[in-house]
Design brief:
16% strand, elongated, 32% helix, 5 strands
């Protein structure tokens, strides 16, 4: 048996590449349409509660020290005494937003804030111009 050095076996990979490209194209077309669903049994809750959106309470203090709560107007002196009574008809979990004129004394705003806190509101925010 004599082999010639010139007759080396050659591997032709062109058909292999063609088959792989066809398989890749088929996979790319079919893959987005495959849906896999896993059936899951979720536990039932013992109690269902609905989240209730509590409207915020807006307090606006103008430069003349007049206060406006939502749509009701108070004088500053009357507010300090009457707000705890007025607050009985408001939800204590509501957010209170205090807006004050920037020319007002800081102590006026802090006294209104103290009255709101004493009335039992825990979420109080001071509004600013952004």
């Amino acid at each position: 048996m004599s082999y010639k050095w010139e007759d080396k076996p050659e591997l032709n990979i062109t058909p292999l590449v063609d088959v792989m490209l066809v398989l890749l194209a088929i996979m790319m077309v079919v893959a987005p349409n495959m849906i896999y669903e896993e059936k899951i049994n979720l536990p039932q809750s013992s109690k269902t509660t609905q989240l209730v959106k509590i409207p915020p309470v807006h307090i606006v203090i103008d430069k003349d020290k007049n206060l406006k709560i939502n749509k009701d107007t108070f004088l500053l002196n009357a507010f300090m005494d009457n707000f705890p009574l007025y607050a009985t008809k408001l939800n204590k979990k509501a957010t209170v937003l205090i807006s004050a004129d920037k020319r007002l004394d800081y102590g006026v705003v802090m006294s209104v804030l103290a009255a709101v806190k004493q009335a039992g509101f825990s979420e109080v925010s001071l509004a600013t111009n952004g």
